[in-house]
Amino acid sequence: MRVIFLAASILCLMGMTASAQPSKMNPNPDATGVEGLTGAMRDVGSPWLDHAMNDVGTNPTGWKRQWCAKSVNLWLQRSGKKGCGGDTAISCLSAGRKLAGPTIGALAVMKHHVGIVKEVHGSQVTLVSGNHSGRSGARSVGVGKYARGRVVAYVWPE
């Protein structure tokens, strides 16, 4: 017991954060969709997050500009979900039910960008999103941190 406590204390002191990985164990978040506000969130099962992670470093859409929603649609449809209903980030508000806060696997919809929540740490969310990194016209799926204040809504896909 002391060894576990000591190891946990050392990790905390080093500032290491837990990293959530997608899981298929529990496919539905709780009724509020809100977990704790710091640290990694519990696994909620989201195959669309798995698809997104598999596409990191690529452009699965073939589009050159403004394709973040196009990639989210692709990942949702591969998972048997209905998708966003459009190719703009804000169209992803209609992809499912709105949540009170971030949950791993939820869509984080911003005015001009959308991604899938991979981790939540305090005032930031880590998202996997299309059209994320690289030079203009040759961007790819990437993982990045965004201020939670930029997010218009969190949506659990249906």
Fold and architecture overview:
The chain is an alpha+beta fold and 158 residues long. It has one domain: endopeptidase fold (from Nostoc punctiforme), CATH 3.90.1720. The chain is built from three helices and six strands, in the order H-H-H-E-E-E-E-E-E. A six-stranded antiparallel sheet has the order 1-6-2-3-4-5. Strand 4 and strand 5 form a beta hairpin. The relative contact order is 0.20.
Strand content: 15-25%
The appropriate CATH architecture is Alpha-Beta Complex
The helix/strand series, from N terminus to C terminus, equals: HHHEEEEEE
Number of DSSP helices?
3
Helix content: 10-25%
What's the CATH class, please?
Alpha Beta
Radius of gyration, CA atoms, in whole angstroms: 16 Å
In CATH, the topology is named: endopeptidase fold (from Nostoc punctiforme)
Question: Largest sheet, if any?
Answer: 6 strands, antiparallel
Task: Assign the structural class, choosing from mainly alpha, mainly beta, alpha/beta, alpha+beta, or little secondary structure.
Answer: alpha+beta
Strand order of the largest sheet: 1-6-2-3-4-5
